[in-house]
Sequence to fold (319 residues):
Amino acid sequence: MSDVWGNNIKITIFGESHGAAIGVVIDGLPAGIAVDSEFICSEMLRRAPGNDAFSTPRKEADEVEILSGVYNGNTTGAAVCGIIRNTDTRSKDYRPNLIRPGHADFTAFVKYGGFADPRGGGHFSGRLTAPLVFAGAIAKLVLRERGISVAARRLSPSDDEILAAKADGDSVGGAIECVILGVPAGVGAPIFGSVESKISAMMFSVPAVKAVEFGAGVEFAAMRGSEANDEFYIENGEIRTRTNHNGGVNGGISNGMPIEFRVTFKPTPSISKRQNTVDIELMEDSTVEISGRHDPCIVPRAVVVVEAAAALCVLDLIN
Fold:
């Protein structure tokens, strides 16, 4: 079981939700980047669980211990390795024989012959987005020096919708919008190396993401070409577009406008309502009521995850 991503910047994410630690190795970073520890801590806190009524009550500080690649506060050019200790695990909440609907329990069992760690979802848990946020924070620091910024926001659901689902023992999905500013025209490549394909591939690597759309996205289906086309004009000697329906990308290559996309997350699969399932040991129908600690909606904590993933993509594309 190996997760390695990237062409110029390579990242490997390791660990399991209830193992001793989770972490990431980032290779290909330039030397001499100041590692702002306060900024990294603030990014980790945005994703950390147990801080409000919308997240799981599992309490994890998510403090990153940097093992390599940083000396005297700057990147050295060697691989950066950071680990995050798991300190608040409750494995007794899980019954591995009952495969949870909507989770990777069944597919992991089939692919790895029953040897995958099932506790808390193991390597398939949303907990593995914590090291991704750390890697993304480093990427943001590199991009900051190059005048590129990444920002995302929750589009849905509302706070009231999340709390209503929680009170009902259920969960709810939602959407996040992300904007990348400062990417010059000419980044990316047609077909397989397109900006959209690179970002989409990374976004679908984030647990629970089920749709990605750029610019007008699905609204293109109801447009005419005269509405969808972004007309060009010159401003201060630069070529710009009057609209940005294409989300800053033409032919897979950035056109200098903001790169805009939206990501849709499915509802958290772990809910306390009784659901039909299968006992994989007895090979018979059964039911399951999930009693562990889970987010009624993962979207609020996923905003910084989307930013991190986007930052890594852009850095890989321009590095």
In short: Residues 4-318 form a domain with the Chorismate synthase, AroC fold fold (CATH 3.60.150.10). The chain has seven helices and 17 strands.
